[in-house]
Structures are given as C-alpha cells and as structure tokens.
Amino acid sequence: MNTWIAIGLTVVGCYAVKLIGLLVPAGALERPLVRRLAALLPVALLAALTAQQTFGDGQALVLDARAAGVTAAALALVLRAPFLLVVAAAVVVTAGVRAMGG
Amino acid sequence: MPSLAGVAEQKALVDLPAAGGKPDSVVVRDALGVGVAVGLSGFAFGVTSAGSGLTLLQTCVLSLLVFTGASQFALVGALAAGGSPFTAAAGAFFLGVRNAFYGLRLSEVLRLTRAVRPFAAQWVIDETAAVALAQPTRRSARIGFVVTGLSLYVLWNLTTLLGALGAEAIGDTGAWGLDAAGPAVFLALLAPMLKSAAERAVAGLAVVLGLGLLPVLPAGVPVLVAALAAPVVLWAQGRGSGR
To answer: What are the TM regions of this chain, as residue ranges (chain A) (predicted)?
Structure first.
C-alpha cells in the first residue's frame, strides 16, 4: 500500500511540473536566480543519489563491489562511451567483482 | 487543431521561422537515434525496480505514468532503502522539477494549442527537450519533439516490462551486478551537468551531505537535505561576487 501511495504522489507531482512548464506564461520563472537554482537542483540530487546507491546499505555505509562497478562507469564516461555502455560497464564489473568474492 | 488564438500567436511570433532549414528526414533520424538509445535503458529501470521489490504492475505503471527516468530510479531506490512513501515521492518530485523549465522553453518553440498541452506534457523530458530545442525551425522542432517522444515512450515502456520480467526470471539481481545499474544511470545523467566550478561544488557538497547524513536520518531524508547544496552554493557564490 505504501508503495502505491508513493507511486500515486510521484505520478501526480511529476505530471504537474511538466504541465506547469507548458502552461505558465514565459517569463514567469525566468528570473536568473530561479533558473540557476533549477539547473543546480538536479546536480545536487543526482550526486547524492549516486553516492548513496554506491556506498549505502540501509543506513550503513559500506565499500563493496558496487564501488568498483560505478568506478568502471565513471571511466566509461570519461572515455565518452554511450549511455548503455556506461550502465553495462557498471553491471558487468560489479557482477565480476562479486563472482570473485568481493 | 488550430484555433483563432493559435493563429494570432503564430503571427506574433518572430523568433523562429516556420519552415525551411533542415530536411525532415534528418530530424527524424536524429530524433530516433536519441529515442532508441535512451528508450532501451528502460530495461535497466525494469530490472532495478523489480530488484527493489516492486511488482510488475507497479514497475510498469511508473514507466507509463511518471515517464521521467531519474525520478523513477530515485523513487524505487528510496523505497528499497526503506524510505517513507512521502520522502521517496518528494525526492522523485524534486528531480522532476527541471522538466518545468524544459516546458517553458518548449512552449515558446513548439507553440502548442491549449487543447494539446495536457497530452504533450507527458513527453516533456530531458531527451525531447534536447532534440527539439536544438532544431533551427518550428517545423523541425515539432517533428523532433514528436518522434523523440513517441519512440522513447514506446521503447521505454516495452523495455521496462521486459526488464521487470527478466529480473523476476533470474531472481537475485544483486548476483548479476544489476544493483549497480541505478547509480551508474545517475552518474551518466550527472556527468554532462558538471560544467563549471559551481556545479562541481554543489555535487561535492551534496555527496558529503548525502553520505554523512545517511546513518543518522530516516531513509529518503538525507537526499532531500543534500538538495540544499544547490541554494547554499548559490548563496555563497552571491556573497563572493558581492564583495
């Protein structure tokens, strides 16, 4: 039930922000500070989520095979690999390290 | 469906030519390139969502009705970590806020009639905005938006279903390293955003807050606190330039 509540809220919230952008007159959200904040907000969220899903295990911080996998993804990004290859690198390296008992 | 108001709006518009410039076939090819490549990554979402304990129906409803990847990954990650439905949804919502700003730009470029906007809204995401806003004319922007949106929507939902079915079939997704797909997706979305010192400062501070607060705050809350890195860095920057 909790999962459905979360899904319902996300569906409504995410659709609402998409629609608001198309409906409000241009200029309403065009103040430089608002634009700047809107550009930086996903940076903060994505950085925190990347770190947490790499090192978090419930409420504990751990160093396991995922760190190796995400490092491989970072390397693939530096080498300008396409999106799917970046994700594949993370998955394959994580599985490999785990298979070796890491 | 053109309306009188729509025609008046179009006549008043001067910033974009209505036609000419780029052949339609080139726009369609570019749009399909983006739509297909990113659409296939719905597979990673399906696997991650099923691995996070969501049912097949829940996973598919997310891709059908939320249809903005980062928010979907964030939601299932927060739920898997034991977050409350409200903090989990809040994290997903804040990630989706950027789509409002794409919508602002797109409504100027596409000039949609009021009746069409509620339907077009679901496709206002990173990829459709990137393709449509890169076009030289209104016609090619509209083609780019529709082709990217349609190909991405169909494929993203199809691969979500296949990914979720696949995850159920193989059982322990962790053994296959599939729990690393989520953070890799976030990193791939984040990397092109790290253009200047301000972005890197925000990312660094957010990582410190996100990891530092993980052991002490309820699941899902540390990400929301880490979002404060954005206004904090902006404020510090404003102070710095004010002196």
So the answer is: 6-25, 37-55, 67-97
- Name the percent of chain B lying above pLDDT 90: 59
Give ipTM to 2 decimals: 0.90
User: What are residue A60's phi and psi, to 5 degrees?
Assistant: -100, 155
Residue range B196-239, pLDDT digits in tens: 999 999 999 999 999 999 999 988 889 999 999 999 999 999 88
Which tokens belong to B213?
């607060």
CA-nearest residue to A7 within chain B is B62
Whether A21 has its CB under 8 Å from any CB of chain B: the answer is yes
Phi-psi region of B17 (alpha: psi -120 to 50; beta: other; left: phi over 0): beta
Interface test with B, best of A5, A11, A23, A43 (most B CBs within 10 A): A43
Q: Would you tell me which residues 32-51 of chain A have a C-beta closer than 8 angstroms to some C-beta of chain B?
A: 33, 35-51
φ, ψ at A56 (rounded to 5°):
-90, 140
Cα distances from B89 to residues A9, A39, A55, B86, B115, in angstroms, run 6, 20, 22, 5, 29
Does residue A74 belong to the interface with chain B, where contact is any CB pair within 8 Å? yes
Domain ranges of chain B: 4-193, 195-243
Cα–Cα nearest to B4, from B102, B113, B85, B108: B113
Burial B57-78 (b: 16+ CB within 10 A, else e): ebbbbbbeebbbbbbbbbbbbb
Chain A residue numbers with beta carbons less than 8 Å from the beta carbon of B227 are 41, 44-45, 48
> Mean pLDDT, chain B, as a whole number?
87
Question: Structure pTM?
Answer: 0.81
Nearest residue of B to residue A46, measured between CA atoms: B186
